[in-house]
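Hi there, hope your week has been kind to you so far. No rush at all, and the record is pasted right below.
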Amino acid sequence: MDVAALAGHLKALAADLPLPALDTADQCFEAAQAEVKEASRESNQEIGLHKLGAARERLDAARVRLTEAATAIDDYLAGIGAGAAPAPVANAPKASAAKPPPVDPRRWWTDRVNELCDRTGAADPQQVPPTRLFNDLLKAAGDGNAEAYCKRLRDAGPQTGVKLPGLAWPLMRTLAAEHLGRAPTARDVPALRDKCADKVRSLVPKAEPDHIGAALASACTLGRRGADDEGDAARTAAMGPALVAALHRLSKSERRA
């Protein structure tokens, strides 16, 4: 490859460095942070703000490394007398590129709920009070209607969804106490998890035993959460009503017996 061809190849590589894509990603993170921060004011659960912050820090580090790479290419081209590569524009797409679509701050919630429920579909945003959402989810859970359960949770979005644990946890503790005949403790979590797992997974198929156990531990030990429950707001929200329904069924079977 001659010098001119090498210079042309390097200039093309420099022009394709994905700095605009990093900016779009950062806008998504910023919008998600703003929405989760707003929701966290009315939730007593850890909903992953620190992880979003860490992700933005890693994104910033990637932007620095890409900028350094572009500078190194410029220096090399200047050194061989081929002229500088066109500098990537950090805050705007290429002139020929289409304008990126508006950032959807709810998209991460929609994708995560779909993943947990093993379903697909776009959200139809609904502004409903947390108590109404909770009751709708309990009805869907009681009916065994996994499709409705996923849709209600997906449509609610993160701002309402992250408030569900605050409604579910006290009920879970009360129902566990009814089933056990005493206040639940951490030692009861494995047995409760095993009894609830089938019902929960019929609604949230991707709920692993550790996730179910972490949610039960959080409710039954007055908020001392398991490590597996940390940082996944959608999963924590999805666990609550499903576990309330499962524990309610256990309590009913105990009363009948």
The mean pLDDT is 79.
